[in-house]
Amino acid sequence: MATDSSDGLDGVRNRIDAIDQELLRLISERARYAQQVAHLKTESNGQQVQFYRPEREVAVLRRIKDANPGPLDSEEVARLFREIMSACLALERPLNAAFLGPEGTFTQAAAIKHFGHSVVTRAMATIDEIFREVESGACDFGVVPVENSTEGVVSHTLDLFMSSPLRITGEVTLRIHHHLMSHEADPSAIRVLYSHQQSLAQCRGWLDRYLPHAERIAVGSNADAARTAASEPGSAAVAGLQAAEIYGLTVLAERIEDDPGNTTRFLVIGKADSPPSGQDKTSLLLSCRNQAGGLHALLMPLAAHGISMTRIESRPSRRGIWDYVFFIDILGHRQDLAVTAALEHLEKDAPLFKILGSYPVAVL
Ligand SMILES: O=C(O)C(=O)C[C@]1(C(=O)O)C=C[C@@H](O)C=C1
Q1: Residue 74: which residues within 8 A CB-CB, separation 6 or more?
Q2: Among 48, 49, 187, 218, which residue has the fewest nearby CB atoms (within 10 Å)?
């Protein structure tokens, strides 16, 4: 909206106040419509109501990003709408999500990035426990780390998918920034340094250079590290900003990761996969015959149906020496015609074939 200089500071602020009133009225109206949606869903589906609709949420966020006129950045605008939808969904029914605790981990940050701040996050001690909580229905969803751009795959998460009936219902990518935090004001007083083993590895170069004499101790999570450092003089932790806030530590050095693009990918797990959103991925677990050209033959159906593969990871199957399974991500939803055809073909050829889930490509 155009303003002229005669408006002055008070004049412009009055306009902002009027816009805020209007925004509040519209957000409240939107929330009432979400309540209507909840009534309609309950009427038509009885007990099996899916209040959370990931494919609808990404459609809303993609439309907002496309329509963004500026000057706010599209990511920023999408984040605002992420929060509005999160609050609207909580009015329909509050969602809960299990994450790898304690409070303040990157997995919790990933859960909030994906579902918005109205989700109730529940800290679990291990990745196994997250799977169990979702399998038993105690939690609606779980969020688990799966790979880091510097350190590679979180093999334990992949292994759990081999035996779990759960589906992947979403993915979250999070830029990971590590900070050095302590009660000590002087870094030379730091004798012991706590962090998760992956975080220590992601900051190896910086730590070798600036804290070569501190003993590095790997613990279960970065938040655990911050909690320990908070109670132990002469110690420090490498963790995220949220952990510093929660455990009252001072940040002595920011963004100490060796790779400034350091990113971790998380998966959202639930009991059902997401309906098609138009831009989806499908994750598969496959094995191939133990013979020359076995993997090549296995992947042929993907190429034949024009399906792009975005990731392939191999893990020992634990059924015998030299027996491997492959975790494969492809572009497209299992209900897309070309994907369905390729999967039928794969299922016939692969000794082990499991669809881990189809889910929307991350928007935020
Ligand atoms: O469209 C729906 O199904 C809704 O429940 C509304 C709404 C929204 O606020 O836009 C809220 C929650 C769902 O996860 C998706 C969208």
Answers
A1: 64, 65, 68
A2: 48
